[in-house]
Amino acid sequence: MAEKEVVIKTNKLTKKFGDFVAVSEITFEVFKGEIFGFLGANGAGKTTAMKMLIGISKPSSGTANIAGFDVYKNTESIKKSIGYMSQKFSLYEDLTIKENIILFGGIYGLNDYDIETKCNGLLEKLNLQNDADKLVNSLPLGWKQKLAFSTAIFHMPKIVFLDEPTGGVDPITRRQFWDMIYEAAHNGITVFVTTHYMEEAEYCDRVSIMVDGRIEALDSPENLKKQFNAATMDDVFLMLARKAKRGD
Amino acid sequence: MRILKFLLRKEFLQIFRNKLMIRMIFAVPVIQLILLPFAANYEMKNINLCIVDHDHSEYSRNLTYKFTSSGYFQLTAIADSYKKALKVIEEDRADLIIEIPEGFERELIRDNQTKVMLIANAINGQTSGLSVSYANSIINDFNSDIRAKWIQIPRINPQPMIEITTSNWFNPKMNYKYFMVPGVLVLLVTLVGFLLTAINVVKEKEDGTIEQLNVSPIKKYQFILGKLIPFWILGNIVLSVGFIISYVVYGIYPAGSYLLIYLFAAIYLIGLLGFGLFVSTLAETQQQAMFISYFFMTIFILLGGLFAPIDNMPDWAKILAYLNPVSYFIEVMRMIVLKGSGFMDILKYLGIISLFAAGFNLLAIFNYKKTV
């Protein structure tokens, strides 16, 4: 890991809505294959920051470079290189599992042969071969999330952005979900994940903690715990988040 | 193009999986086309008539008989004074009073002219207008009848009279269904095209799936075409179902060419779908989209010339009617169905509707953003 390839690089990235500064001059780098945890209380600006990075929200100032593309000029190129899974579960509920996979495969420009073989592989991996023709809305939430994640990385993006992917999911499924994240990272996909669950923060290679639109801390979980002299990430987070002026 | 193929496949899968949608597409035109033209009846029959006959003569009885035998009026009350007749109207038992003055027959024979008073219940302006005009034509008829009789027994030299005969071109029997059905069909196509598109796109906003598409490499035009093409096809299906019903139930088929109607409908639908898409960019929830659509649909319908002729509208309303794409399709539909107008006749309207189509779609494209 001597030569770390930088896949996300921001410099004083800012988003203002009128007088309200949602994201204030955040500067950080994310390396290839890393699992980068993006933490913060509700309203700290995580989702706004992420929307700028994936090219659906124009920054007010500052620069950002995603997978080698500029967020101002090359949003369309960025979109080809990333996967995204939103807070809101967003596969088509009235399409079957297979139809969803084919749709998103097609949208990201995969050819029919790739779609077919990869789709079968994926169904097998998720143990959903017999459910391929079931409507997505008939699946339990945990399965939907796993499927949404698999769909988000189906086209092998350089980076996958996950916005609170495990909300409302039981601990066992959450654990399985993280196994899938590890596997993706192992395959060279950079994972950028926001979460509320501090135990999940421990699974990340590095985490940043946002308070009131600013990044207050950024390091590996071990270093952060040392730096703040805390036993768990939970304590670190509470120490920082208590300083927050804006609430929920 | 490949992306578009996937989007279209998705859209059709969703449409045909939605049972309510399928019902809307086929049942709505059937029910509305069968019910509405029968209900929205412009012909008036059985207008309640109250007669105040102060003359009690042969002529006054003849006039009364003429009214009751016309088929349009039924005698519901006979009053002996104007005051009592007014009471009948107040009780809503009569739509029209005819007061025949004393000396009606005498004056008519002696002076060759006399007067009859008509009082119409104008609670419903349209009914009262029609009943007065029916009454006028019956009295005219009565007038020419007695004059014909007098000529047979030459007594006085009648003034030369102009007899007015009317014949209704393009709809000789004045069958109002010929008038209504094409118009109702236009409204149906409008509803399907405009409302379904708006709701469909807003549903994706609500479900969050549109965000998922926005972070993908789908181009704006691909997204818009992916939405327009399926609903364009649906609109044409509704139009065709409507034509089949018009023929089977009413025996109505265009005097002109079907092809020309479909040509116009093709451009019209592009415009309306663009407008639906525009509405979807304004609304965040399906509820909002419904309200905005309802607002526009009401204007489209009331200022479309289906129920009230545009020529009768005040100037400011005429301007609104000219800004209403629905009014052009209703006009063109009637021209082709009733008159058999050809391509050159509707060229002007084709031009106008093309402008609408271009305008609405530019508006939609301009307003649809892939960013938030």
Describe the structure.
The complex is a heterodimer of chains A (248) and B (372). Chain A has 248 residues and is of the alpha/beta class. Chain A contains 9 helices and 10 strands. Helix content of chain A is 36%, strand content 26%. In chain A, the strands form 2 sheets. Chain A has a 6-stranded mixed beta sheet with strand order 6-7-8-3-9-10, sandwiched between helices. In chain A, strands 2-1-4-5 form a 4-stranded antiparallel beta sheet, with helices on one face. The longest helix of chain B has 32 residues. The two termini of chain B are 26 Å apart. Chain B has 2 domains: 232 residues, no CATH class; 106 residues, abc type-2 transporter like domain (abc type-2 transporter like fold, 3-Layer(aba) Sandwich), CATH 3.40.1710.10. The mean pLDDT of chain B is 85. The chains are: A alpha/beta (248), B alpha/beta (372). At the A-B interface, helix 2 and helix 3 of A face helix 1 and helix 8 of B.
- Spatially, the strands of the biggest sheet of chain B line up as 2-1-3-4
Number of strands of chain A: 10
Shape of chain A: globular
Instruction: Output the number of helix runs of chain A.
Output: 9
Count of distinct structural domains of chain B: 2
Number of helices of chain B: 14
**Termini separation of chain B:** 26 Å
Beta fraction of chain B = 5-15%
Annotation keywords:
heterodimer, A: 248 residues, alpha/beta, Rossmann fold, six-stranded mixed sheet, 9 helices, 26% strand, B: 372 residues, abc type-2 transporter like fold, 2 domains, four-stranded mixed sheet, 14 helices, 68% helix, elongated
Give the helix/strand layout:
The complex is a heterodimer of chains A (248) and B (372).
Chain A: E1 6-17, E2 20-31, E3 35-40, H1 46-53, E4 61-66, E5 69-70, H2 75-81, E6 82-85, H3 97-107, H4 112-125, H5 141-152, E7 159-163, H6 171-186, E8 190-195, H7 198-203, E9 206-211, E10 214-219, H8 221-227, H9 233-241
Parallel strand pairs in A: 3-8, 3-9, 6-7, 7-8
Antiparallel strand pairs in A: 1-2, 1-4, 4-5, 9-10
Chain B: H1 2-17, H2 19-39, E1 47-53, H3 58-68, E2 73-79, H4 82-90, E3 96-100, H5 104-111, E4 117-120, H6 125-152, H7 176-207, H8 209-214, H9 220-250, H10 258-282, H11 286-302, H12 315-322, H13 325-339, H14 343-367
Parallel strand pairs in B: 1-2, 1-3
Antiparallel strand pairs in B: 3-4
Helix pairs in contact in B: 1-9, 2-7, 2-9, 3-6, 7-9, 7-10, 7-11, 7-13, 9-10, 10-13, 10-14, 13-14
